Fold this sequence. Notes:
The complex is a heterodimer.
Chain A: H1 4-11, H2 28-39, H3 57-71, H4 76-87, H5 102-129, H6 135-145
Chain B: H1 2-30, H2 33-36, H3 39-62, H4 69-74, H5 81-86, H6 92-113, H7 119-143, H8 167-196, H9 201-232, H10 243-268, H11 272-295, H12 308-332, H13 347-379, H14 387-404, H15 418-423, H16 426-443, H17 449-472, H18 479-488, H19 491-516, E1 518-524, E2 529-532, E3 535-546, E4 550-561, E5 564-576, E6 582-585, E7 587-590, E8 594-603, E9 609-617, H20 620-637, H21 640-643, H22 649-658
Antiparallel strand pairs in B: 1-9, 2-3, 3-4, 4-5, 5-6, 7-8, 8-9
Amino acid sequence: MRILPVLLFLMLGGSAFAVQPDEILKDPALEARARALSGGLRCLVCQNQSIDDSDAPLARDLRILIRERLTAGESDAQVMGYVVDRYGDFVLLKPRLTARTALLWAMPFAVLLLAALFLFRRRKATAANEAPLSAEERAALDRALE
Amino acid sequence: MIAETGHFALILALAVALFQFAVPLYGAYRGDAAVMRMAAPAALAQLSLIVIAFAALTHAYVTSDFSVQNVFENSHSAKPLLYKISGVWGNHEGSMVLWVLILSLFGAAVALFGDNLPLELKSRVLAVQGSIGAAFLLFIVTTSNPFTRLDPAPIEGNGLNPILQDPALAFHPPFLYAGYVGLSIAFSFAVAALIEGRVDAAWARWVRPWTLVAWMFLTIGIAMGSWWAYYELGWGGWWFWDPVENASFMPWIVATALLHSAIVVERRNALKIWTILLSILAFSLSLVGTFLVRSGVLTSVHAFAVDPARGIFILGILCLFIGGALTLFAWRAPLLKAGGLFAPVSREGGLVVNNLLLCVACISVFIGTLYPLALETLTGEKISVGPPYFNLTFGPIILPLLLLVPLGPFLTWKRADLWGAVQRLWVAALVAIGAALLILVVTQRGPWLAPFGIALGVWLVMGSLSELATRIGLFRAPWPTSLSRLLGLPGAAIGMSLAHAGVGIMIAGIIAISLWKVEVIVAMKPGDTAQVGDYAVTFQGETPLTGPNYTGETGRFRVTLGGSEITVLASEKRIFQPSRMPTTEVGLHQTLAGDLYVVMGDRTNDGGRAVRLYFNPLVNLIWLGAAVMFMGGIFSLTDRRYRVGAPKRVAMAETVAAE
């Protein structure tokens, strides 16, 4: 099912896997931040694959760039801001909440809310139908039972 | 000549499918039994013809007949036999033939085993089934003919993509398609019921086993794909929220919801309209999946078909069937009489919550998959929707459902005692909390989500066992009594417990690998040792490697645990002929506690190898969980109520009334 990354990886001529030993930073805390950041960035020449998983040369360049910026002392937000400025929102695997993605983020929860509301109202409607018998109905029932 | 026979058989199958669509429908409309009875032989004839076509294509692959263009493009004479056969469906045209083959197989199964169905319903179901077959056969014959000849015939073929040359992937498509296409039966039953204007408990009892079979195939198909990704891709990932994965996951979610809502129809004659809608939606999502994968709309390599003509054709089929069924639904559904009433806290109420959350979860996957496509089409703006989105939407929606699962089976029909149900689960709750505390004490540090995740898995497993224990009176009745009660339990009861426990087992595996994975990336020269978790792994060096259609190197890694040797793992780098494509084979040491996963990468400048080592704790629980869910399906299928098949409709109605 997950043919995609491999195919791309093959097409791009890579034969290794994502993060290479020579990329890893000496400082484990900094490296952990770099890994976390690259896990959220899309490899631009791949399909739905983060640069952390990708073998494409471009992904490697980005990983190295992130590590350079982190080593230079930038914050996570600064590094992300820099990458997004350069490559656009497409690079983010977690889309930012904007006017155009509001629907994307809101829809699942809105549907849940609406469906719950619908069920609740229907419940009340059925409950109303089950209203206690009127005096006439009760009389009719008593007659029938006699 | 054999290829031409196959092509001719496909065209004949199209004609038969059209007959199977039109004639029984007319017969049912006129109430003419003789005409209606033509449906079953037509379904069998359609199957036979497609079998002939499929056999012809397989023959061309096995004998490496490169005068057939499809074989030339996707096969190679040096390939092992298994991959010559799996090559049949490893391409667009062949996979569509497999699609209609499975479709006609299900149709023929209804024709053969549907003796207990009323003739009208049976002929309408087969007619709808025939219409789907006709649409896809027309698609194959006009846009995707697998039997096109090449003249002159080339000497050698282009070969199958090396990464498809894998046992798990060879059988992944047939299982997945059996799931996708199996849902067509529920769809056909729903459409037939809408035409009849009648849905009752007997209807649900007929639909349920078919849906269950499709669901089981989907479960196994998805699990196989995930298992393949895990060991073939070389970084231990097992699920990526890729659109193609989502395409198979969405029908699975809705099929799961359908399995649950059909129970309510069967037992309480309620939720009928909703169940019909779910039956339509489940197969519609299969069609959407087929469209996503086959049309090239994802512009992924997965979409083997780049030709937009095909995409538009499938889109047409999609609109015709989904639109047609929903229109019929809007027109006829109000005719269906509402069934039994129930209080909010009841088994029915629990199953409504199950359906609500499953469907909303499916919507989140649907939106996440299609939103980028829609946004790009409408505004030209490109965004990515990756795993973080699904973790933040699908996650919180499915979590409450998972927490509630053990409660459901303890609720009684119509009106339930919530507190009583909770009380029966105290052992399960205690064990789950105990597990969380134990993990906190042992690990003493984060990730803090881990104890809760594992506890959720334990809660699900223990909850399912509690239900079984209550049913058989474990510890309350004498042992022999409990045992005989266990053996006497209906298959569906054991099936449900197994399926729910399977979910719990899977959750535990998912949490463990997501939060406790150990990863080591190092450059190693022969003789170097790296520590991964408790294992010490020594690189012993590499040797040249020659396979049937590839060459490469094998790296050997000696694995020791506490000073004693456990095993020697081999990780291979293969270069396939004739494409020169490289692939990597993972060295895998599997235990229930976790997998040691070794991948040899590229040569480093100083003559060593880049090596990636993982310890993936409890990861096999993911697939064990899927297997347990599958087993649950098997138990459910053996249930006498479904096997002997539903008794006559009248008898059923009386049972329901009596309940």
